[in-house]
Amino acid sequence: RWEVANKVTYKHERGANFHECVSRDISNTGVCLRTYEKIPANEKISMTIELADGITVQTHGRTLWEKEDGRDFLVGVRFEEISDKVQDMIFNCAFEAQPQQFQQKWFQGV
């Protein structure tokens, strides 16, 4: 996982509207969202994630956990049916945004 603060637009299966939030971290397999609402575990969620200026990906996932974080909530989402292309886009944008963090985790075993 790479610590990032990407803009995310999401809609969960119980909600009628789209909401905006930011990511706390992201990987090829999932994302941690910082939201203003509590989203219970095992909820389907559709997301558009802005990886960089003008680069967005659309993906679906399922919430794994949620916890309070001050006035916000952290929500762990596992991507479902994510293509190799989208995984590559996430990987490349995370590397470009956080090259030192990426190198430290991959090459120093942290």
Order of adjacent strands in the largest pleated sheet: 2-3-4-7-6-5
Into which percent range does the helicity of residues fall? 10-25%
Broad shape: globular
Decide which structural class fits the backbone.
alpha+beta
State the total count of DSSP E strands: 7
Number of helices: 2
Order of helices and strands: EEEEEEEHH
Strand content: over 45%
Question: Keywords, please?
Answer:
single chain; 2 helices; 110 residues; six-stranded antiparallel beta barrel; alpha+beta
Overview of the molecule:
- The protein is of the alpha+beta class and 110 residues long.
- It contains two helices and seven strands.
- The protein has a six-stranded antiparallel β-barrel.
- β5 and β6 form a beta hairpin.
- α1 crosses α2.
- The protein is globular and about 35 Å long.
- The mean pLDDT is 86.
Topology of helices and strands:
Elements: E1 2-3, E2 7-12, E3 19-26, E4 30-35, E5 44-52, E6 55-69, E7 72-80, H1 84-97, H2 99-107
Antiparallel strand pairs: 1-3, 2-3, 2-5, 3-4, 4-7, 5-6, 6-7
In short:
This protein is of the alpha+beta class and 110 residues long. Helices cover 21% and strands 50% of the residues. Strands 2-3-4-7-6-5 form a six-stranded antiparallel β-barrel.
